[in-house]
Write a structure and sequence with these properties.
Length: 367
Amino acid sequence: MGQYVCNSCGKTHEITPTIWKCDCGGVLDLIKEMPVIDASVWSHYPNSIWRYFDTMPFVKESKTWESITLGEGQSPLIVLDSTEPNTYVKVDYMMPTLSFKDRGAAVLMTKAKELAVSKVIADSSGNAGTAIAAYAARCNIACDIYLSDETSPKKVAQIKAHGATIKQIHGTREDIAAAAQKAVDDEKVFYASHVYNPYFYEGTKTYAYEIYEQLGGAPDALIIPVGNGTLVLGAYYGFKELYENKLIEVMPKIIAVQAANCAPLVRAYENGDELAKPVTNQGTLAEGIAIAAPARSKQILEAVRDTKGTFIDIQEVEILSARSKLSEKGFYVEVTTAANYAGYLKYNKSPQEKIVIPLCGAGIKSS
Ligand SMILES: *Cc1c(COP(=O)(O)O)cnc(C)c1O
Ligand SMILES: [Zn+2]
C-alpha cells in the first residue's frame, strides 16, 4: 500500500524492505491523502497511540499493531508549577523504553513486520536505538544498533537487554550513520531509521493528537528539542492534520531548541537559509540533540517558519541548572531533556500563552 516520494526531486518509489532514500540522495516522504479525522472511533481502540490508527497509513483491516504494541502513548499532561498555570509538561518519559521514541518505533516496526523483514539496522544517539531494539524484539526481528562508543552506558545496557547486537563506533554521529547505512546496503536489510523512514513520523505525530485531546484544543506554543527533528516534524504533521480537518483554528507555534554547541538549524534560521549547513559539534551534554548535519533540515525549517515559531539555543551551563530545577519540581529527566526546560526559560512568552514542554527522556538514562 502506498508509495514514497523524494523530497528533493519528486521521483516516486515503491515501498520495499530495502529502499530508504532516493537515487538522488533526497529523503523520502509518504504519498498519502490528508486523513479525514473521525474522533468518534478513537474510543474503539486501547488507550495508547493506536487510538489514532485510522489516521495512519495502514490498511484499515490491519491488526499487526495489536501484537506489537507495548502500551506506548497517552502520557500525562501536567501543569508544571501552580504559579504558572498555562505551562504544561507532557511526560513522555513514561513510555515503555522511557523516551518519546517509542511513538515512532512502534509504528515503524509495525510497518517492518508487515513488510515481513527478518532483520533491521538502526543508528542512534541512544534512545531511538533502545526503542527500535525493544520493538524488534517484540516482532521477533533481528536488530543491529550502531552507536557512538561514548553513548550513555545505561542506554547501551537497555539496548543489549532487548537482544540487539550493538556496533559501537568511534567517530562523529555522522560517521555512525554512515557505517549503519553501508551495512544496510551491503546486507540488503531494512533501515529502521527514525530519521529517514517516514513511518516513524506517523508515530511521533500522535504527540499532537494526545495534546489536542488532553487540552481540548491546541496550545499556543510547543517547546520542542530538535536534533534530527522527529518530534518537531511529528508534532507539526499531527497539528496540521487537525488544522486541515478544522478541529483547531490556529497552528501552535513551534519553538525549537538546540544546544548552542551544536546548532546547525539555529544558524540556518538566523541566516534565512532554506537548508542547514553542517556544523562541527563543539561538544554538548545534550547528546540526544547533538546532530551536526540533520538530513531533514529543509522540512524542519519550513515547519517552524510555517507555524511562526522560532529557534532558541541553549548554553551548556543552562542545561544542568535546568535539570536540577525540574527535579526540584518532581520531574527527573535525562540531561538532554533539561535543554527543553532551559529553552522554555529563555523563551519570551506572553503571560496568557498556553505552552507545552515535552519531557522526552527519563532521568535514569543519564549517569
Ligand atoms: C531523540 C531525542 C531528542 C531529539 O529528537 P530528534 O528527533 O533528534 O529531533 C530529544 N530528546 C531526547 C530525550 C531524545 O531521545
Ligand atoms: Zn530524488
